[in-house]
Every structure is written in C-alpha cells, then in structure tokens.
TrEMBL record:
Record InterPro entries: 3Beta_OHSteriod_DH/Estase (IPR002225), Lipid_A_modif_metabolic_enz (IPR050177), NAD(P)-bd_dom_sf (IPR036291)
GO terms for MF: oxidoreductase activity, acting on the CH-OH group of donors, NAD or NADP as acceptor
Record flagged with keyword Cell membrane: no
Record domain 3-beta hydroxysteroid dehydrogenase/isomerase: where: 9-258
Highest taxon above the source species: Eukaryota
Similarity comment: family membership: Belongs to the 3-beta-HSD family.
Coiled-coil annotated residue ranges, if any: none
High-level lineage: Eukaryota, Fungi, Dikarya, Basidiomycota, Agaricomycotina
Key words, A-Z: Oxidoreductase
Entries under Pfam families matching the protein: 3Beta_HSD (PF01073)
Organism listed in the record: Postia placenta MAD-698-R-SB12
GO biological process terms, semicolon-separated: steroid biosynthetic process
Protein known as: 3-beta hydroxysteroid dehydrogenase/isomerase domain-containing protein
Length: 355
C-alpha cells in the first residue's frame, strides 16, 4: 500500500530530536516545514512560531498546508522557571491541539518523556500501562505528563488523530544538554567521583532512533486496524535503544573517549565512590546552602536519585505495533556524538570557565 503524502510541520524542528525528524523526512522526499523560535538551519522552510501564540500557530499551519504535526517544543528540564514550563508545555500544547484542529491537521505526534512515570523508585522494565506517580519528581515531568494527557484526550475529536512518544535518555549530535554536562565535568576534572554502586541499569536512546519511532507513529496512526491491540491512534509508546547500560559505565565511556580526544588537557583524577545515602546528605546540604544564598543549588537530591536508580522501560509495544527497531547502537551513538563534539570544540572540550 502506498503511503499517503503528508505535509509535515515540525514544531521545535531546530532542536535535537526535531532536527533528526526533519532530516529523515527530507531524505525520503517529503515536504517538511520547521516551526520554532530559533532557526539553526536553512535547508528547509522555516517559520518563527511560538506555541504560546495560538493564532499565529494556526495561521502558519494553514499557510504550510500541514496535514501532520510533530510537537517537540519544550524548555529543557531544569532550565526554566516553573511558570515557563506550565506556559509552554501545558498552555502551549493546548494551543497546538486547537491550532491543528482549526488548520485541518489530521495527525499530531507529541514528544513526551519517559520521566512522566518516574517517582524516584526503581523502574525495572515498566510498560505503557504503568501509572503516573501521585507526585512528580519536578515541574518538567509534571507538565510533560499533563501535556501528554491533553494530547491523548484530543484523539479522535474534530478529525484529529494523536500519539504520544516517550523517549528515554536521548543523546546524539546536536545535544547541548547531556554532552555539555559531561564535557563540563571533564573540563573541571570531576570525572573521578561516582555516586552509588553502579548496579543501576538505565535506558539510553540515540537520537535518530527516536526520530525513527516518531515517524513510524506518524505513518501508521491513520491506518485501519481490525485488532485493537495494534492501534496507534490514542496510544503512547516508550522508545529506547533497548540495551540498558549501567549509569556510570555510560558516562565513563564518554569521559574515557574525551581523554583520548583531548590528550594532556586534564589529568585523570583518582576514582572515589560515594554511597547514594551519603550523597543524599551532601545534596540536602547543598540545597540548604543554596536556599540561604538565594541561588540555584549546584548538587541536588534529584541528581543523586537520577544517578543511582534503575530506569528501564519496555519497548515491546513499539516493536510490535510500530515495527520499531533501533538503527544505531549505544556504542555507535557514543562514537558519533563524540566525533561531532570534537568537530564543535577542536581545541578544548567546552566553553565553561573552570571552577
């Protein structure tokens, strides 16, 4: 069966995942537009659009003739005030839904997060039936969960079909969050400290694998099904590389490569392991001092939990229903992102000022 020709609008198409979706759509000859507040590329039509402006978003979608929207616009976790997360992730998503309906869009693929089900306790292979926690770990996860609920509730209404994708631990070329953090730690000689015993397995996802999952969902969301277990519309899917790594094995793999890429830049510190319980004490003290100084804390209890808790997600639904299969392994992905990082920073590993 021939795939129906859609016109794609990628909201947040200048970002890490959005850019890879754009590249994949371009590669197969699709018509694609980028809608974002920042333009980083000029190889596809770009429209400066803010999701907090519903009318502007609707008018742009109409001008593009969009039939399928990928919605990825969101501040990065830990980078904005609470009210900004609510304004962009929740109110902005309401606007995306309304604008899509008014513009005649048929498909809406929303990028959620695996973190919407994380409550600080071990997750050992949970699937999409696992419930949201009574209290989310932070406002980013809370607002992403709320936005996901809005998107799924809109499915089947006013001619709109919706899907939510939950990636975990996304990394790849163009990443300036995870890689910047690891490169900064390397630059400051902070690679020797380990929080926890490194027995916690964690899922990671190379960015093109996420893009693949998103496009598969878009292609299949409007296909008729006789078996409801194969439905895509109104569903949520975890997307990972399906090859868990111990948390510190992943970070040390990157740091080891940075020592190779920047020889002589930094002496390798002596390793030291801090038990997770003691790390929580240090983090609580850091948070208290930051509160006294009215500054953001450098080290938090959430950091300790993130570094020492298993977070594994079952992707069998995505494999069975979407036909998802990771294209790039974690090992391959690490090499690709580090080669890109070296091309961005040929002489030094980051632009940070050493502590």
């Amino acid at each position: 069966m021939d795939r129906p020709q859609d016109v794609y609008a990628v909201i947040g198409g200048s970002g890490l995942i959005g850019r890879q979706i754009v590249d994949k759509l371009k590669a197969r000859g699709d018509t694609v537009f980028v809608l974002d507040v920042t333009q980083r590329h000029d190889d596809v039509p770009f429209h400066h659009v803010d999701v907090t402006n519903k009318d502007g978003l609707r008018d742009t979608l109409k001008r593009c003739g969009a039939t399928c929207v990928f919605h990825l616009a969101s501040p990065h976790a830990g980078t904005a005030r609470a009210e900004v997360f609510w304004k962009v992730n929740v109110e902005g998503t309401k606007n995306v839904i309304a604008a899509s309906v008014e513009a005649g869009v048929r498909k809406l693929i929303y990028t959620s997060s695996s973190g919407v089900v994380f409550n600080g306790k071990p997750l050992n292979g949970v699937d999409e039936t696992y419930p949201f926690p009574a209290k989310h770990m932070d406002v980013y996860m809370e607002t992403k969960a709320k936005a996901e609920e809005l998107v799924l509730a809109a499915n089947g209404k006013d001619g709109l079909l919706t899907v939510a994708i939950r990636p975990c631990g996304v990394f790849g070329p163009g990443d300036r969050q995870l890689m910047q953090g690891l490169a900064t730690a390397f630059d400051r000689g902070q690679t020797g400290t380990q929080i926890g015993d490194n027995t916690n397995l964690v899922d990671w996802t190379y960015v093109t694998n996420v893009a693949q999952g998103e496009i598969l969902a878009a292609d299949k969301v409007d296909l008729p099904v006789t078996d409801l277990s194969m439905a895509v519309a109104g569903e949520v899917f975890f997307i990972t590389n399906d090859e868990p790594w111990r948390f510190w094995d992943f970070t040390h793999k990157i740091w080891d490569k940075l020592y190779e890429l920047y020889p002589g830049h930094q002496a390798r510190p002596e390793p030291r392991v801090i038990p997770a319980g003691l790390g929580m004490v240090f983090a609580a003290c850091s948070e208290f001092i930051a509160w006294l100084l009215k500054k953001p804390p450098i080290f938090t209890r959430f950091n300790v939990i993130f570094m020492s808790t298993p977070r594994l997600y079952n992707v069998s639904k995505a494999k069975r229903v979407l036909g998802y299969k990771p294209e790039v392994s974690v090992d391959e992905g690490i090499m690709l992102v580090l080669n890109w990082w070296k091309s961005e920073y040929p002489d030094k590993p980051s632009d940070v000022v050493k502590a």
